[in-house]
Write a structure and sequence with these properties.
By secondary structure, this protein is an alpha/beta fold. It folds into two domains: about 1-210, Putative cyclase (Glucose Oxidase, domain 1); about 215-285, no CATH class. Helices cover about 15% and strands about 30% of the residues. It contains eight helices and 18 strands. Strands 4-10-9-7-5-11-12 form a seven-stranded mixed β-barrel. Helix 2 crosses helix 5. The longest helix has 9 residues, at about 130-140. The chain is globular. The model is unreliable at about 215-220 and about 225-285 (pLDDT under 50).
Length: about 280
């Protein structure tokens, strides 16, 4: 499953107060030019975007210098919907993400989905506090994504941005569609900016991916095949987490009757292989 976490760019959309908005101009049309083309005008923080360290750190990384490895990979999802419109403190994160180990973290309150269209978002969305930024830094995160305000617009010295970006931790802001992914523990997150050398930020197309379940075909007693479906939520962590499966535990899982035609149609060998494309490690009893 692939979920788009990016706000659509359109004329008149909300944006950071004081920044020029998004606009387009048609340059060519079918009737006179035989084709259509447009010019786009926007600021670098338009819609769902990424802040590179250079946004606040003199000499910090600019967009093209961000590691592509950092911008894609497993991300821990932290459900903060109960704190919508509130300050997200270190204590909040200790409560809701006490076992945080992932390099990337997505902090989701639902503020963008609830009220991004209008000034209300910038007046009353949730914000991170400086001690929350310190808590994330202490846990060696490499990327922070959120769907609220990283910090309040009235905060002139911007301690949260300075703290995170000062540690070379890029910030992905204004994620949307959080309700679709917030019940997941971990997703595969991808967030690629435009290749714009020298700039401090860029709009991104951010997506989350995960299989609804993991399927694998395994051989049993030589020729018998079992089709096992294990919901991802039962794995709790990454999709390649080893799962112990034995003849005695297999009936406890969602198991289809062995159907040779299914295996044949999938062109599966008798060796274990994941139909989703991700290998599920099956361990013996």
């Amino acid at each position: 499953m692939v979920v788009d976490l990016s706000l659509p760019l359109r004329h008149g959309m909300s944006g950071y107060p004081g920044y020029p908005g998004y606009d387009t101009e048609q340059l060519q049309q079918y009737e006179t030019d035989g084709k259509v083309s447009h010019r786009i005008e926007m600021n670098t923080h338009q819609g769902t975007h990424i802040d590179a360290p250079a946004h606040f750190i003199d000499g910090g990384q600019t967009v093209e210098e961000l590691s592509l490895e950092t911008l894609q990979g497993p991300a821990r999802v932290v459900d903060l919907r109960a704190y919508r419109g509130e300050a997200i403190t270190a204590e909040t994160l200790r409560t809701e993400a006490s076992n945080l180990t992932a390099n990337r973290v997505l902090l989701l309150t639902g503020d963008v989905d609830a009220r991004f269209d209008g000034q209300q978002f910038f007046d009353s969305a949730a914000v991170l506090t400086a001690d929350a930024a310190g808590w994330l830094i202490d846990r060696d995160v490499s990327l922070v994504g959120n769907d609220f305000l990283t910090e309040g617009i009235e905060t002139n010295d911007r301690p949260v941005h300075h703290a995170l970006l000062g540690e070379q931790i890029p910030i992905v802001e204004y994620l949307c569609n959080s309700d679709v992914i917030v019940d997941q523990t971990t997703v595969e997150f991808r967030c690629l900016p435009l290749h714009t050398p020298g700039l401090e930020a860029s709009p991104v197309r951010a997506v989350a991916l995960w299989p609804s379940c993991l399927w694998t075909v395994v051989s049993w007693r030589g020729t018998r095949l079992l089709i096992l479906s294990i919901p991802l939520r039962d794995l709790n962590h990454r999709a390649d987490t080893p799962v112990r499966v034995s003849p005695w535990s297999a009936p406890d899982l969602p198991v289809c009757s062995p159907i040779a035609s299914v295996a044949q149609s999938l062109r599966c060998s008798t060796q274990s292989q994941a139909v989703t494309g991700r290998r599920l490690k099956l361990l013996g009893p």
